């Protein structure tokens, strides 16, 4: 779950864009639990 920790810690701008893309991909998925677990981490 190292990726989840990095998603919650947006440091550089380039990574920030990746975080947005990851969020969109997770939002499209029919599993809101995944986004909730990432938000809690």
From TrEMBL:
Source taxon at top rank: Eukaryota
Protein name per Swiss-Prot or TrEMBL: Uncharacterized protein
Lineage of producing organism: Eukaryota, Viridiplantae, Streptophyta, Embryophyta, Tracheophyta
